[in-house]
Amino acid sequence: MSSEIPAESAFQAVADRVWRAVAEPETVNIGLVAGDDGALLIDTGSSPEQGVRLRTMAESVAGVPLVAVFVTHDHYDHVGGLPAFADLPSYGHEDVPGVSEPFALVRVVDLGSRRVELAHFGAAHTSSDAVAILPDADVVFTGDLLESLQPPQFGADSSLNGWLIALDSILSLLNQQTILLPGHGEPFERDYAFDQRMRLAALLGNLEYLRQRHIPIEDAPEAVEWPFDKATIAALLPLAYAQQKQRR
Ligand SMILES: [Zn+2]
Fold first, then answer.
1. Which CATH superfamily is domain 12-247 in?
2. CB–CB of 37/111 below 8 Å?
3. How far away, in angstroms, is 39 Cα from ligand 1 center?
4. Which residues are found with C-beta within 5 Å of the ion, ligand 1?
5. pTM of whole model > 0.85?
6. pLDDT tens sequence for the chain (248 residues)
7. In angstroms, rounded to a whole number, what is the distance separating the alpha carbons of residues 122 and 127?
8. What is the sign of the dihedral through the CA atoms of 107, 111, 112 and 113?
């Protein structure tokens, strides 16, 4: 056995018949939700082999058969295990390649005396983000729209304006007891989600300030106070400047 095979933690309970495992190498959260008749796996890990291992673990923990999987967006650490679930319905936004139950806005998965609501709030972290809402357990799986392990990860298909709108949509679902499970990192409550929304709004405010004053990208890191660390901002600026050009 090679020691380089990415590992997975055991599933641990986070709410009534709701569990989380953590899968390497990206420290991604894998969710598991069981109803009376079946269970849903949320995100599938980074590889088919990891998907197989997660499936075995999930089926022994859930106490009911795994009846479907849902992927929160099309990044490899979330969809890489999908081939291990080819015999089950796989739910995801229609921009995720290879899901068998694609949707544009919303879907409901009935697990027996428990439903999971899947919703897409527009392009944000990627064009394909969707969240899983468990009304009875008051739990929301946010994918990478929110993260507690690291700052939000901006990529070529991120939409900065859209991200703020998506976070406002998530915030509108929450109360003080809601548990949020991010794509990466420990579960958290509403206050943390508000804080990340506030930082993202500050980021957009900074970018607008730079745009209005025609500040070149090379001066941007020092021109304002940024709400995220230097590496995050360095990765974000080329994308943000390119998106501003497109809008003009
Ligand atoms: Zn991602």
1. Ribonuclease Z/Hydroxyacylglutathione hydrolase-like (3.60.15.10)
2. yes
3. 24
4. 75, 144
5. yes
6. 445 655 999 999 999 999 999 999 999 999 999 999 999 999 999 999 999 999 999 999 999 999 999 999 999 999 999 999 999 999 999 999 999 999 999 999 999 999 999 999 999 999 999 999 999 999 999 999 999 999 999 998 999 999 999 999 999 999 999 999 999 999 999 999 999 999 999 999 999 999 999 999 999 999 999 999 999 999 999 999 988 777 65
7. 7
8. negative
Q: How far apart are the CA of 83 and the centre of ligand 1, in A?
A: 19
Sequential DSSP letters for 145-194: TS-SSSSPPP-TT--HHHHHHHHHHHHTT--TT-EEEESBS--B-HHHHH
Find the 73 Cα to ligand 1 centroid distance in Å.
7
How many angstroms separate the alpha carbon of residue 42 from the centre of ligand 1? 14
Going from the Cα of 15 to the center of ligand 1, the distance in angstroms, rounded, reads 24
d(CA 215, CA 65): 57
